[in-house]
Amino acid sequence: MTSSPFAIASGPVARRASRSAKIVYGKREIIVGGSAPVVVQSMTNTDTADAIGTAIQIKELARAGSELVRITVNNAEAAAAVPAIREQLDRMDIDVPLVGDFHYNGHTLLKDFPDCARALSKYRINPGNVGQGAKRDTQFAQMIEMACLYDKPVRIGVNWGSLDQALLARIMDENAQRAAPWSAQSVMYEALITSAIENAVRAEELGLAGDKIILSCKVSGVQDLIAVYRELAKRCDYPLHLGLTEAGMGSKGIVASTAALSVLLQEGIGDTIRISLTPEPGGDRCKEVVVGQEILQTMGLRKFTPMVIACPGCGRTTSTVFQQLADDIQTFLRDQMPVWKKQYPGVENMNVAVMGCIVNGPGESKHANIGISLPGTGESPAAPVFIDGAKAMTLRGDNIAEEFHAIVLDYVKANYTPVHGAVS
Predict the structure, then answer these.
(1) Which residues make up each annotated binding site for [4Fe-4S] cluster?
(2) Could you tell me which residues come within 8 angstroms of residue 74 by beta carbon, excluding any fewer than 6 positions away?
């Protein structure tokens, strides 16, 4: 057997070339598309009319790392509350841009509530839900006119559960004329893609600049999403928003989202992502932000927080000390990031290893910036600590977790230069 004459390649293919759209609030600018990093966004599940409750959830999502937050604007009460939400966020020093999600009555709400239209940084329009028959084109045009008036970008978001029925009927008629008609699934794919692109072209004809349009074609099935976006990416150069319409709950939602988005991102497709997890009762809405970040970070596409490498455990590690320490360190690092990303630029590149026994513990720890190899079952009660590849010390006793916590904090302060004026 001979080796390959070529070096083994790694990493995703080059990002698909696309226009770039700018979403702005105050001095905060989020670029979607072009050469910008893939953006993580989320959506509230509060009643938007509850301005305080919605602002608090937006703050939580923003602190977790959501770079855009979408809110439902479904009635007059919600539209009237949007300026108050924005004002409350300003008082909390949260400058995340807000996206208004409109269905059915967006043309009326944007016209009747100009302060809402101004406070939002971006509009989301579903072309299947803007009106029926003759009203459809008029009401779509009215929403685009508002976007032009207030200089706002728009996501034209098509969903397979709310397709424009007239367009779907047209494509079905065209399919019936084919010598070899497509399957119903292929017809659905074509309808999704055609709706997105035709409405984007129509928006440009109405005066909306091409660099203010983002497209999405959301479905719930993993293979369906991959098929639709591969074709959509070939047919246009608008930035693309990725996400399953309904990913589901718990591990199912996380796995489905990761499976679908990872394939597309690896192929260079996708400019912003949202993980549409159904929260478990009492669950944290911010989990969808964390999952989105972890997809991008584990694929090597972005860095958000220091990575914690931990072994899964086995019969050698019947003690739960390493599990508890790994969880504690990971939680600590994520909790610190809203402050650290401002104070210690580059800290998101740090790697921390928390290992459970002598088999891989020392080796993995040496590869991390900071690593600890905890004693496994039957091993001597000693935990060597490695800093930048060299053994720095050995921890013993009952306070290993607390001592390692302090070592990590000291490493951050010593190795990541505080920005001017930051308090360490």
Answers:
(1) 311, 314, 357, 364
(2) 48, 101, 102, 103, 104, 105
